[in-house]
Amino acid sequence: MATTLPTHEGRIRNAASAGVVAPTLADDERARAARRLTDAAGVRRLGPAAVAFRTAHAGIAAGFLAAVAHVWVCALTGRRDPWLRVAVAALTLEGVVVTANGGDCPLGPLQDRLDDPVPLFELVLSPRAAKCAVPVLGVVAATGIALLARRSTQPRRRPSP
């Protein structure tokens, strides 16, 4: 006679026919963690590490958006300040890292490991627009930097007396 055992998902499984003796300790711990992170409506909540990561990731994204805006303001107005070098360096480094990562955000795999299923830009954009956000922002940043470089190499006109 076959023995039935509860699985970590709460269903009954025939141990003899499935070849499963019992769920592992890791499965039980994972199931308990998933239950703790699920509210009464069955909606899965983020764990504290995922919330902290999402907050930090949003801060990094806001910093890069501010850098893009600063580059464009400086490119259009001709203003130069110490933050401009920081902005250009940060955007250039980010462009290299994103390009090396195949056009995707390099923080995506870490986000996956923290069980955060929603990419950052999909929190504010549609999935299709979010997929295009990183390449489009890269082109906008590169265009601003190119305009900045072009304007800085042009001879400056002296004001007439």
Could you characterize the architecture of this molecule?
Helix 3 packs parallel to helix 6 (127-153) and helix 4 packs across helix 6 (127-153). This protein starts with a strand and ends in an 8-residue tail after the last helix. Strands 1-2 form a two-stranded antiparallel sheet. The chain is built from 6 helices and 2 strands. The chain is elongated. The model is unreliable at 1-17 (pLDDT under 50). The protein has 161 residues and is mainly alpha-helical.
For the sheet with most strands, the description reads: 2 strands, antiparallel
Model regions low in confidence, pLDDT < 50 over at least 5 residues: 1-17
Order of helices and strands: EEHHHHHH
Termini distance? 105 Å
List the helices and strands and how they pair.
Elements: E1 4-6, E2 12-14, H1 15-18, H2 25-36, H3 48-77, H4 82-100, H5 108-113, H6 127-153
Antiparallel strand pairs: 1-2
Helix pairs in contact: 3-4, 3-6, 4-6
